[in-house]
Specification:
2 copies of one chain form a homodimer. Chain A is an alpha/beta fold. Helices cover 40% and strands 17% of the residues of chain A. Chain A has 2 domains: 110 residues, ATPase, nucleotide binding domain (Nucleotidyltransferase, domain 5, 2-Layer Sandwich), CATH 3.30.420.40; 166 residues, 2-Layer Sandwich (Nucleotidyltransferase, domain 5), CATH 3.30.420.40. Chain A contains 10 helices and 12 strands. Chain A has a 5-stranded mixed beta sheet, with helices on both faces. In chain A, strands 4-5-6 form a 3-stranded antiparallel beta sheet. A two-stranded antiparallel sheet of chain A has the order 1-2. The mean pLDDT of chain A is 94. At the A-B interface, β9, α7 and α9 of A face β9, α7 and α9 of B.
Chain lengths: 301, 301
């Protein structure tokens, strides 16, 4: 959990970072949010608050719906923050605020069309199209992790098969390697195994690790091809833990786009790592607060 | 090929319709466009021209890139029309203008989030999000037909497998039935077979026809689930020849959405046939001309 205090130009003055409490009790979580935000502000009055939070959430009401791993209850986060800090609060999906951060301050140029994909324990996306964040009718747009890309793929919690997340997330990469190891496949990998382990072993030429990692990377590449065909972005930023694999991942994704995107559609599209690294969400939350409260609406870097 | 003359409120005064010439010679095609448009206008001066054309095209320059079945050459349609008729011309993908038509005049209410999918000889889409047409960086957005939904599916001309069009289009439905019949499968169907034949036989309970049609319908349903997760539309309009199957198609698509769309994301989404029928494109082309030329920018019926 990260919090920052920014000045009226959006420059970060103070920041705090803590491990999120994991007892699923809403009161403990909210207390921690108050504490971390309070420490970052040092008790100073703020003009606006921006939050990137895990979904599912309603960005209009600022309510989080029993967020996975965080709380058994729905959390009316906007209302709670506004009452506590006496300033307007704006809540958005974490991938959406990261997309805002990368778009406005990621150093990707003056584009109006950027999609940020985070590939981490889960997979999500934030879509900027024609110069605005697309969150849609239910403020839930960007859920690329739950789009189906292989109906014969592994079963998903949602009841179907082969969604992007169940193949491409770090969790899924680790699980696929785990299953193969349990089944007795030869490999330099040893249990317990993480996505980082699989990535490292794939880089060293381990066959099992390569199979698992490159299947995830190639599938992510197809998901990017689909995004390009559907939305014609100029920039696709891939962040999150799995993107740390660098060229091992990006080369495969770019090759899929090279191979399968229609010529006119794929023309000039850049597929790049985040310019802000792990700060995309924090910078984006500041931008969200400033834009939504009318403090700033310009496109800077 | 259809052309209409509309008044300053967008009401259609005259219309013409002809079978498009199919000799792939650009001159013949352009002459036909001039003739049909000239007949519709009756020689009157026009204030603006709107065109829905098959892709691939660049909506900014108004150039069609050797459109399939129409021409062996690129066609600078915007430039040609502006020179011939002495008025600004605006060219967009045919699915995009149909989306505009359905959004503004299809009777779907005051939504800001509508996606129009045409399922015909090909499959395409037009996306309205946050009250504007999304055509993206290369003006090529909406190419849902070329998104990959089953990497183990039938091979596509684009070199990959299992794009939406290769499974769901009318052409693909007819081809799949044809292949099964050629392989000797028992069926009430007889060669040569069309998508309409397959639909009718599926309705009558023919096993082969049902298999083919419902696979296409269920796959289209997954594509709609993916659109809902990515873009959170309020209204999904499905038009084109295959949509004439009515409830036989819509019941399957709605069932997929019911089953697989995440609760918050799928809330309140309507999946409906076009309100304008085959006129969506014509009405949308008028709307395109009026909005782009500044004649009208309001949201009508």
């Amino acid at each position: 959990m990260r919090a920052a205090l920014a000045d009226e130009r959006g420059a970060v003055l103070e920041r705090r970072e803590v491990l999120t409490v994991r007892d699923r009790e809403m009161e403990a979580l909210v207390r921690q949010i108050y504490d971390v935000a309070g420490e970052a502000t040092g008790g100073e009055a703020v003009a606006a608050i921006g939050v990137g939070a895990p979904g599912p959430l309603d960005a209009r009401t600022g309510v989080l719906y029993h967020p996975v791993n965080l709380s058994n209850d729905d959390i009316p986060l906007k209302e709670l923050l506004e009452r506590r800090f006496g300033a307007p609060a704006f809540v958005q999906n974490d991938a959406n605020v990261a997309a805002l951060g990368e778009w406005l301050h990621g150093g990707h140029g003056q584009t109006e069309h950027l999609i940020y994909i985070t590939v981490s324990t889960g997979v999500g996306a934030g879509i900027i199209s024609h110069g605005r964040l697309i969150d849609g009718f239910n403020t839930t747009a960007g859920e690329i992790g739950h789009t189906i890309i292989d109906p014969d793929g592994p079963p998903c919690p949602g009841g179907h098969r082969g969604c992007v997340e169940i193949i491409c997330s770090g969790t899924s990469i680790a699980r696929a390697a785990h299953e193969q190891l349990e089944a007795g496949r030869a490999s330099s990998l040893r249990l317990p195994v993480t996505a980082e382990d699989v990535t490292a072993a794939a880089r060293e030429g381990d066959e099992l690790a390569g199979e698992v990692f490159f299947h995830a990377a190639d599938t992510l590449g197809l998901a990017v091809v689909n995004l390009i065909h559907l939305l014609s972005p100029e920039v696709v930023v891939i962040g999150g833990g799995v993107s740390q694999a660098g060229d091992l991942l990006f080369d495969r994704v770019r090759a899929q786009v090279q191979r399968y995107a229609m010529p006119l559609t794929g023309r000039g599209v850049r597929i790049v790592p985040p310019g802000l690294g792990q700060d995309a969400g924090l910078v984006g939350a500041v931008a969200l607060a400033m834009r939504q409260s009318g403090l700033e609406a310009t496109h800077g870097t």
